[in-house]
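[Archive record]
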Amino acid sequence: MLKKLVHLFSQAEDHPGAPAPPQAPETLSFLPVGEKPPTTPENLPPEDPSASLPQPDAPAPVSPGSPVAEEKPEAQGGGRYVYARYISVRDSLICFKSVDGLYFGQARTHFTHVQPDLRIGEYAWFQTGDPERGVFWHKMRNPASLPRESQSFKQHYQVGDRLILPIIGKTETSIKVALGPTLFSFVERNSLPAGIGYADLNVNDIWQFELREMSDNEEGKLRVTLHPLARYDDDSAIFPATLEDLRIPQTTLDRIRADGSRRAALERAMNAPLSTAALKQFIERKYQQQKDENLLLLWQNCFGLIMDIDLGIRDGNGVQLKAYVQKNNGRDSFFLPQIAEADSSHEMERYVFIDNWDAVTGRLAELALEENWDFANERKGKRYILAQYLRYTFYKAKLDDLLYEERNGAIFNTGLVDASYDDIYCYLKRNTKAKDPLKRRWVIGFFACRGKGSEGKLLNRLFGSFPEAPSYIRRDQLENIYFDTGRDLVCDYEHIIRDNLKRLPMEFIASTFDNDSHLKKMIHERYPFKEIKKYIVENKPMVGRLETALEHAVETSKKSCRWNYRRAIPIYYPRTNSISLLLPLNLCGEKDTADAALVIEKLKNGNYQGQTILTLDMAYQNARQICRLNNEWLTPDTIVQSENQEQEEEEETENA
């Protein structure tokens, strides 16, 4: 199946009270100011969204004193055009923030074929969707329609509004200001207010303007009068000055109270009983501290901005706890959906600014012992597996105090070796790049083996001791990496079917219900997966048939592991900082192949609990973290990366 073009998150499926996702939003392309959009291929339909963070009980109000116009309904057929900054990149996802700080969004990096020179810190025009159902970045029309842009502008703005806009041209008598991708206006030099000199207004500057007049001329074209107010500091819109207005829903407090160990850890850190006031004060203190140290991490889903605040405490498994603070698109206020374990796949981006993952993984792969870092359906050289491996390795090194710092940098052991089996270290140097909006602490300097080459010799001079590679299996856990087929294995099939049905091959689902004509039609006509899932999980006999089919596959897997113990593969779960086992599941009937993997956990009584199911690419990523694999059923040469891999990488351990 073709890769989908837009990465969208929605709360609708797992949280019934959340807004439903829009139907088939258009996709994103990059459009530099002043240029016409290039021809692009026809859109592909978006993939079925997946849940991220819970939504609040009610939308947050818009602050009347906002420096931009108050929220108005989006235009039918398309929302307002916003000028946005490219603020971060993560594998095939790029993240944007509108200059007014009200809109945040994501899209796939392969849109950079439209504007390949777009880099972090640079700007482009986008069009929003309906904020009540999530904000989406739309593909610009070809050719761009001035009437459509004019209509959108008139619908969303009114005289007196304050707009944040870029200057895209300047002559001796006037400046040219962009109102949209191709819509613009002029401000005459002789009309500038007192206190603003003509030399202060320059191309590529972003200014705040007041909309003084708006009308149509005799030809029916939009005519506006703009009054410049002040140059706009875009960085100030990324992080608010304070979280004093943070809303903490009652459901969030209830979840914390229901987890005794988490509540106890929070109360010790706050030095006070759990309450809304105490928790707000504690989060505000941590927020200000990390803002001052440039350690705040932000990322987005289609509903808005999520800030990840490290609370400086750990749960019973030694995993750091974070406050995930969210602001919905088009709103000013923040709310606290949850306090949860650290998202290990994001932790490296908290400290390290990386604007070109291809270059980073290319340097590391060239030095390391040869290995295939691409799944079978990926572009060779993308090295998605290696990028994820490096992220999780950094996370574990930081968790286990194996990140060694000196005055101007730090090192950690990558766990990889060169052709002589010497350890490869990653040297992080101080970040001096002005284009990093988050002003993170480090950038990747180089990879080197101790004492080898000029860079390895430099490491030997800078560091007196070198960290070991992160260890995932303790000596007292060695027996856990062997699957004792003589013990009982009980699986939570209901969880697998209801929560992770999309991880099962569609061929397996279709063959299980080969006499169901309606399901066949839904699959053949590519109905949204959410509708297929609803049709199955709301039918008890169908759920029962799937359970029976899965039970048969699990029993067959147990027999194969009894024949060859190496078919059970240990994996690392970052979110619980623990080791589990993978069992191969042959679901589609092809001889001696696996279509998915079952995650099982050894219990204290010696029996096993089947926790969840993973696609093969998810399984390989988790298993490769421990060591290089030499296994017949789990190899990247034959694994096709699933379309929802990036979407589920934060979810893959949550249910286990």
